[in-house]
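To the wet lab folks,

You asked to see what we're planning to order before we commit. Fair enough. Below is the target structure as tokens, and below that is the sequence we designed to fit it. If anything looks off to you, flag it before the synthesis order goes out.
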């Protein structure tokens, strides 16, 4: 062990951190193997090491039980490391794609206002046209929706026009559930456009109907809408 230390194997060099990160991300290894690597990175505690240990959130291992268990454990460990962990988490939220557990760790490190601000900043760091970060955008939109923060909810409206159908549908759900009125005009317009997928158009139509939003009878509805809905008294109603 002394020789290992003398050779620099126990120091947080870039090479050693990379080795531990690869172990953390090993899907088919025993839990103890990944845990030892996470322990080492957490012990080092440098910004690079903390960024590395969070790569555990980016992979799904073979055992669903241990995948959940390890990620929850890491959330709690990060929550004990204060500002250093917070900085690593906020950077992760802005750049990585699997952010749900990182957001849980952040929630333990921030007050409500700080948590919401970081979620919005992470969402706004992504472009609606970016197809590579669809999962992260969907998870961030859902997380912002769960806060119910009136000001933060406005950031979700832009993502009604996201590249990904899943993001659009989640944004529609958030606008409907939280009654984000600034998103209502966009919802109404979506059901008259022909460049959304059928799934998105139907999702928007359902929200418009349930919210009782006014419809311009002079504007033709998308074919996917007219399959299930009609305009009655200036509003969208199920065609029964």
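Sequence we intend to order:
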């Amino acid at each position: 062990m002394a020789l290992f230390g003398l050779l620099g194997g126990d120091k947080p060099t870039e090479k050693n951190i990379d080795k531990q990160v690869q172990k953390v991300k090993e899907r088919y290894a025993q839990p103890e193997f990944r845990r030892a690597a996470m322990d080492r990175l957490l012990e080092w505690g440098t910004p690079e090491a903390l960024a590395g240990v969070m790569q555990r959130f980016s992979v799904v291992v073979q055992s669903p039980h241990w995948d959940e268990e390890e990620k929850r454990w890491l959330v709690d460990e990060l929550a004990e490391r204060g500002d250093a962990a917070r900085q690593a988490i906020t950077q992760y939220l802005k750049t990585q794609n699997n952010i749900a557990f990182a957001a849980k760790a952040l929630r333990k490190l921030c007050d409500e206002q700080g948590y919401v601000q970081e979620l919005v900043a992470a969402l706004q760091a992504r472009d609606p046209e970016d197809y590579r970060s669809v999962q992260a955008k969907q998870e961030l939109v859902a997380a912002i929706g769960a806060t119910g923060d009136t000001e933060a909810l406005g950031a979700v409206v832009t993502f009604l026009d996201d590249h990904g159908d899943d993001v659009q549908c989640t944004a529609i759900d958030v606008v409907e559930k939280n009654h984000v009125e600034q998103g209502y005009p966009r919802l109404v317009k979506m059901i008259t456009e022909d460049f959304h997928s059928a799934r998105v158009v139907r999702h928007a139509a359902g929200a418009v109907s349930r919210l009782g939003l006014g419809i311009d009878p002079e504007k033709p509805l998308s074919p996917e809408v007219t399959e299930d809905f009609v305009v009655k008294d200036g509003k969208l109603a199920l065609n029964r």
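Structural context that might help your review: DSSP finds 14 helices and two strands in the chain. Strands lie at 229-232, 235-238.

Thanks,
Computational group
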